[in-house]
Amino acid sequence: MALDRSRFFPLALSRGFFIELSGAQLGEQTDLFDGALKAAKGSLKGLVFFDSNNRHRGRLSKKCSGAWPRKTHKYLGHRGFWQVSPVVHVLGIETSCDETGVALIRAQPGSGSSQTGAGASGATGEILAQALHSQVALHAAYGGVVPELASRDHIQRLAGLVERVMSEAGVDWAALDAIAFTEGPGLAGALLVGASLAQGLAAAVNKPVIGVHHLEGHLLSPLLDPEAGDLRFPFLALLVSGGHTQIMRVDGLGRYALLGETIDDAAGEAFDKSAQLMGLGYPGGPEIARWSTSGRADRFDLPRPLMRRPTLDFSFAGLKTAVLTHVQKLRSSLALDDQARADMAAAVQAAIVDVLTGKCRKAMRDTEIHQLVIAGGVGANQALRQAFAEISRQDQCRVLFAPPHLCTDNGVMIAWAAALRVLGGQPPSRASGFSVRPRWPLAELPLV
Ligand code: KG4
Ligand code: ZN
Questions:
Q1: Residues 412-447, buried b or exposed e (16+ Cβ, 10 A)?
Q2: CB neighbours of 208 closer than 8 A, spacing ≥ 6?
Q3: What is the model's pTM?
Q4: Distance CA 313, CA 294 (A)
C-alpha cells in the first residue's frame, strides 16, 4: 500500500480492514489517500476518519472519484466517517402479510454517473439464495387473509427459511453487512414476527439491521433487472398491489412524489373482490387471469371509473358494484355458468388494464417523463404486461417490470431495497427493540 508525504501514520492492517491514524495538519497537502486508495481498490471494506473536516471532504471526494465508484463513500459530518463498501451482502426478511419471504442478495455500486441506474448509482444485485412460503392455502377457506393465522404461520416458517437461505447461499453470517426486514406497512402481528427475528439474529451475530418500507421494496424491485442499468431519474412508477394503487414520480432513493392514487379500492382488491363475487378462487388476481384466457371481454360492459377525468387518481369501487349487479342478474336467470364466469373475468381484467394503462399514459404525457417502472402483485398480470409492451412501442416510452415471481411479496425486494440504501450511504442501525410501522406513509422515508 503506497502512502506518500504524510508525517505520521501508524498503520494497522488486519484482515482487510485498514486503519490509518495521521497527524496531518489542516490544509496540508499530504496526498495521503492517493496511492492507498488505488492500491487497496476492491479489497478495502471501510475507511474511517476521526477529526476530519470539510477540507478532507473535498480532497477525498476528488481523489476517490477516479479510484472508486461514486457513492461508495459518504461524509457523515464531523465524526468523519466514510463508508467504503464495494460489495454488500444483505439478508432480507418479508412478513408483512401472507407470504414468508427470505433472500440473500449481493449488491455492488455501479461505476456510472450518479444519475443512472438503481438507487442513483447503477448498482447491480445478484440473488444468492431465496425462499418463499405462501400462505394462500391457509387463508383460501376464508376468502382473505386472517391476520392471527398469518402471524402464527410466519412464526412457524421463518427461522427454517432463514437457515435454508443461509446454507444455500453458502455465505457466513460474519460476511453479512446488514439484516433487513419489512418494518411496515402491513399487519402488525405479521410484521412483528419478521422484525423480532431480524433483530434477534442481528444481536446474536453482531450485525446492523435495516427496517425497509414494503412499498419501497416493491418499487425498487424492477431495478434488479440488469436491463434497468441505464434507467435515469426521474422516472414514474405504478405501484399496484392488494392494498395500494399509486402513480409516483421517483426522483431518487426515498424521493417519491405521489401523483395519483386510488380513492377507494386498490386494483388488486378489485381483482380479489370481483373473483369472490363470481365464486372463483383466492387470491382473485391470478384466478381472474386464468379464467380470462377462455373468456370474451366484450360480453359485459364494465365501467372505467375516472378514466376521462383530468386527475391521475383511480377508483375501482364502481367496477366491483357493476360486477355484483351482473352476477346477481346471471344468478337469478341461472346463467352463471363457466362461460359466463370466464367472460366476466375477461371483462374485469380488461377494465382494470384499461384504467391502469390509461392513467399511466396520461401521467407520462403530463410529466413528459417517458420511463415507467411497474411493481406490486398486479404487475404479475400477463395482460397488463402485454398492454404496456404495446404502449411502449406506440408511445416510444420505456416500461420496466419486475419478473413475475418478484412482483408479489418476497424477501428479495426487501434485501435489495436495503442494499441500495446501504450502498447509497444510509448507515444501518444496531438492533434496538421491536419497532414496526403498520401504517407508514412512503413520504416519511429518509432520503439517501
Ligand atoms: O404485492 P402483493 O403480493 O401484496 C400486497 O402487498 O398487497 O399483491 C397481492 C395482490 C393481490 O390482490 C392479488 O390478487 C394480485 O396482487 N395479483 C394479481 C396477479 N398476481 C397477484 N393480480 C392480477 N393478475 C395476477 N397475475
Ligand atoms: Zn406487497
A1: bbbbbbbbbbbbbbbebeebeeeebbeebebeebee
A2: 177, 178, 179, 202, 427, 428, 429, 430, 431
A3: 0.81
A4: 31
Q: Is the CB of 177 under 6 A from ligand 1?
A: no
pLDDT single digits (tens) 262-308: 999 999 999 999 999 999 988 999 999 999 999 999 999 999 999 98
Look at ligand 1, atom 3, and give the residue with the nearest C-alpha.
Answer: 408
Determine if residue 7 is left, alpha or beta; phi over 0 gives left, psi from -120 to 50 gives alpha, anything else beta: alpha
Q: Which domain holds residue 289?
A: 233-401
Q: Let me know whether 261 and 392 are in one domain.
A: yes
* Domain annotation covers residue 3: no
> Which tens digits make up the pLDDT trace of 160-194?
999 999 999 999 999 999 999 999 999 999 999 99
Q: Identify the residue with better confidence: 262 or 117.
A: 262
Asked if 189 contacts 200 with a C-beta cutoff of 8 angstroms, the reply is no
Residue 1 counted as domain residue: no
Q: What is the mean pLDDT of residues 211-238?
A: 91
Ligand 1 pocket check for 412: Cβ under 6 Å = no
Same domain, 376 and 335: yes
267 Cα to the center of ligand 2, angstroms:
12
- In this structure, of 43-57, 62-76, 416-430, the range with the lowest mean pLDDT score is 62-76
Rounded-to-integer distance, Cα 323 and Cα 345, Å: 10
Same domain, 129 and 98: yes
Pairing of strands 209-213, 178-184: parallel
Residues 297 and 159 in one domain: no
Question: Grid coordinates representing 90?
Answer: 444483505
The pLDDT of residue 67 is above 50:
no
Based on the number of CB atoms within 10 Å of its own CB, is 13 exposed (0-12), middle (13-18) or buried (19 or more)?
exposed
- Give yes or no: residues 53 and 111 share one domain: no
Residue 263 and residue 182 share a domain = no
Q: Per DSSP, which regions of 394-444 are E strands?
A: 398-401
What is the reported pLDDT for 6? 42
Question: What ligand is nearest to the CA atom of residue 274?
Answer: 1
Residues 358-367, mean pLDDT to the nearest whole number: 97
User: What's the rounded Cα separation, in Å, for the pair 103 and 409?
Assistant: 12
Whose CA is closest to atom 13 on ligand 1? 285
The rounded Å distance from CA 215 to ligand 1 centre is: 13
Phi, psi of 211 (to 5 degrees): -85, 130
Q: What angle do CA 386, 387, 390 make, to 5 degrees?
A: 85
